[in-house]
Task: inverse folding
């Protein structure tokens, strides 16, 4: 049965992961994806999938969360990125391709992708 | 919306907005009875009876950022087009149950679409919320309870990239079997 084998895989995975020392002190990068009806209709799920893929390829652990409509429906899909101790940047009309660029540039290197920025906040 | 799995993601955002700690998604595809049923149960803050009566009107929303709430009205429209409808059962302080029914064979019924992406999205963004997923296709069924996964994982978070990888494979395999694939 598939289920038992899969649970076995999961147990093995647990041992592997526990062996790794993940240096996550100093905090993770936060990524917030807009998931109101407006965000979903504009393609937020595909953007989320692209972000997860890119994080996985690069082996980065980030804290992803979702939020409802924030009132900028025409700019959805909206993605906020916050690096520890830095400004919160909101990106708008993000496509899956853009999403990979946001991970590569902003999440990894802290370089803001200016052409997609729609707002900035001090955290 | 083009996929029922996007409506599901939308309903789950409602549940999260209501502060749910446990969300259950039920899908039943029954070709004998020609029904496609989707249910979301949550233990969020619920709605008063009076509010539920008005909630299918797009001008009913507690949001402050936009004057109309679209999620439930869109879903209702989609069910109506397919000889179905939606039912909302809610109690303040207890939680909410939304049930959407479609005629399975109806020409206008959107496909379920990428339910795996919907589940991975929810789990990766809400590792502390318990998600129960039950999916039946005629006489086959599959279910997943994130609490069971957490029990195996111990202190490794559900949204660890390696766990999400496992989930991705697991769901692909199980959903494939559910639809009779080898
Ligand atoms: N599961 C739920 N628990 C408690 N309240 C809910 C739930 N689902 C919906 N509501 C209430 O019903 C209102 C209307 O929901 P609906 O999904 O139609 O629109 P919305 O969530 O306000 O906006 P949108 O879906 O367009 O982003 C919500 O604002 C909320 O007050
Ligand atoms: Mg909604």
Result:
């Amino acid at each position: 049965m598939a289920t038992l084998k899969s649970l076995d895989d999961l147990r093995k995975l647990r041992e592997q992961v526990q062996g790794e020392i993940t240096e996550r002190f100093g905090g993770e990068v936060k990524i917030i994806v807009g998931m109101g009806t407006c965000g979903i209709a504009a393609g937020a799920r595909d953007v989320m999938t692209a972000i997860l893929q890119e994080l996985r390829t690069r082996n980065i652990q980030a804290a992803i969360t979702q939020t409802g409509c924030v009132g900028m429906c025409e700019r959805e899909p909206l993605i906020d990125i916050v690096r520890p101790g830095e400004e919160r940047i909101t990106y708008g009309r993000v496509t899956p391709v853009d999403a990979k660029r946001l991970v590569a540039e902003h999440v990894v290197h802290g370089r803001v992708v200016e052409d997609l920025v729609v707002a900035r906040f001090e955290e | 919306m083009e996929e029922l799995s996007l409506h599901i993601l939308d309903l789950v955002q409602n549940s999260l907005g209501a502060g749910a700690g446990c969300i259950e998604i039920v899908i039943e595809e029954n070709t004998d009875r020609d029904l496609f049923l989707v249910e979301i149960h949550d233990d969020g803050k619920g709605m008063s009876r009076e509010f539920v009566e008005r909630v299918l009107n797009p001008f009913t929303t507690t949001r402050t950022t936009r004057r109309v709430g679209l999620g439930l009205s869109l879903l209702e429209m989609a069910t109506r087009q397919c000889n179905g409808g939606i039912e909302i059962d809610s109690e303040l302080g207890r939680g909410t149950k939304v049930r959407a029914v479609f005629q399975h064979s109806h020409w206008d019924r959107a496909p379920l679409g990428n339910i795996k992406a919907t589940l991975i999205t929810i789990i990766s963004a809400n590792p502390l919320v318990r998600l129960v997923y039950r999916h039946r296709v005629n006489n086959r069924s599959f279910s997943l309870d994130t609490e069971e996964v957490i029990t195996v994982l111990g202190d490794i978070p559900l949204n660890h990239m390696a766990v999400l990888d496992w989930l991705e494979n697991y769901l692909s395999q199980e959903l494939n079997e559910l639809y009779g694939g080898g």
User: Anything to note?
Assistant: Chain B has a mean pLDDT of 93.
